[in-house]
Amino acid sequence: MAEKKPRILQNNKDMAWSLIPLLLACLVIAAIAGQCSLRVGGPEAGQVPRIDLGASLQADADALDFPIRRPEVPAEWIPNSASRPAVTGADAVASTVGFVTPAGSYLGLTQSDAGEEELLRFRADGARTDGQGVESTAGTEWVVYRGEDTEPFWIADLGESRALITGSGSQDEFLTLASAVASAPVLDPR
C-alpha cells in the first residue's frame, strides 16, 4: 500500500496537477452540451425576437376594461415584447408592447386606464421627471416628460385611457409611434 506524501511535500504544483484533470473534464462537458464557444472578434448581434402584435393587443382588448388601440407602425419596425403588468400605486393594469426600429432603438407603448401621474410614476420607476412641453401629432397632444438619466416619456389622454411612449428612439421615431397610436382604431373585444 502506498504511503501518503508527507504534508511538507505537498505544494502548489501538486494542487495544479490535481486541478488540471478537473478543468479538462469541465471543458469536455461544456463542449458536449454546446454551452461553450469561442468567437474571435467579439460577440455579434443576434436576431431580434418577434411577437404577433395583433394577437397580443387583441388578447389585451379581450381581457381589459378599457379601449386598446392597435397602431400601424412601419413594416420594418419589429414588435418584440408584450406584457400586462399591474400599475403600482393605482388599481389598474396596463397593456405594454415594445418595438425595435431599424436604427436599433427600442420604443415601448403602454396603454392603461390609470391616471397620467400614476402611469408616469409607474413607467418612470420612481425617477424624478419634469414636464418639458407638448408635442402635437394626428390631432392628439402628448405631454413630454424628461428626467435626469431617464428616457423621455410622452403621455396622451385618449378619453377612457391613456397612452405612454418611452424608449431610446429618436424624436422622429417618437412622432411616428405617437401618430400611429393617435390614428389607430380601437380593437373590439371578442
UniProtKB/TrEMBL annotation:
Pfam families: DUF4245. InterPro entries: DUF4245. This is DUF4245 domain-containing protein.
